[in-house]
Specification:
By secondary structure, the protein is α/β, with parallel strands linked by helices. The chain contains 5 helices and 5 strands.
Length: about 130
């Protein structure tokens, strides 16, 4: 995922092509899995969609960050989808999984979450399960 800054907005972001803008901040827990998921998605769409990230510098002053307030990217993490220079609406669902680590290994839990995401992204697979 490429990092972008204010000077990149017109030259890289709002021009032809499909882009994903990911706004996040260090130290905000939901940002960590969201970034990981977007990096996985980026691999799937390599060459078709450009992925950019904006890291807020000062978490305590996030509501004063010029770029985040301009794009109404609060609460963090927030993802914007850009198609040919225009922000487009896209359905996004945040998922979380809780389990007892004494009973279920973390990798097994993540595999379960990946399977749930795969089914939500392609509901026809539900008909094939069984």
């Amino acid at each position: 995922m490429k990092k972008f800054k204010k000077s990149d907005i017109n030259s890289k972001i709002f021009n032809k092509g499909n882009k994903v803008l990911y706004f996040h901040a260090d130290g905000i827990c939901p940002c960590i899995p969201a970034k990981s998921d977007l990096e996985d998605i980026e691999k799937s769409f390599q060459g078709e969609i450009e992925f950019y990230e904006y890291l807020a510098k000062k978490v305590r002053e996030i509501d004063k960050d010029e770029i985040i307030t301009h794009y109404e990217a609060l609460p963090l993490p927030t993802t914007l989808f850009i198609k040919d220079g225009e922000i487009v609406a896209a359905p996004v669902l945040a998922l979380s999984l809780s389990f007892d680590h004494r009973q279920i290994d973390g990798a097994t839990g993540q595999n379960a979450m990946n399977h749930i995401k795969r089914l939500l992204n392609n509901p026809e697979l539900l008909l094939m399960e069984g």
